[in-house]
Amino acid sequence: LKKMQDYPYCHVRSPQLIGNGYCQGGDYNMAECGFDGGDCEDFNAKYPNCTVSYPSWIGDGDCDSGDYKPGIADWPEVGDYNTAECAFDGGDCTSGTSEFVSWNVSLRTITFIFSTVLWLY
Fold first, then answer.
1. Contact by Cβ (8 Å): 25, 54
2. Is the overall model pTM greater than 0.85, yes or no?
3. Where residue 18 falls among pLDDT bands split at 50, 70, 90?
């Protein structure tokens, strides 16, 4: 673990998390904190313009769109994960919007729904 004296201008809630091998994001992922003591170097190289609270959620298999992580209602997300800058949540989101809905579906799902609707008529 990095020592806080290495980052005298880093002011975060849990300084013991600096340099623990896990990219914390937010205020930890700033130059003053050594980009989380070096923990966020890979993330920053891969997603240089992606600003989110929990970088580990990028590419974790869940499409995170902002607001709250599914199933973890008390973990507010800051930043929009489903953007080009974040590679659409690291590939977790198949993104699209219309005037009425946002969707996260695959072509196979659309084909199934379309076929089912036609069959019903």
1. yes
2. no
3. very high
Asked if 21 and 39 count as a contact pair (C-beta separation under 8 A), the reply is yes
**Cβ neighbours of residue 7 closer than 8 Å, sequence gap 6 or more:** 18, 32, 33, 34, 37
| 77 contacts: CB under 8 Å, gap ≥ 6 | 52, 53, 54, 57, 64, 66, 67, 68, 69
Q: Which amino acid is at 74?
A: D
Sign of CA dihedral 77, 59, 33, 16: positive
- Please tell me the distance from the alpha carbon of residue 71 to that of residue 73, in angstroms, as a whole number: 6
Interval 56-109: pLDDT, tens:
889 988 888 765 555 554 555 556 888 889 998 899 886 444 333 444 444 444
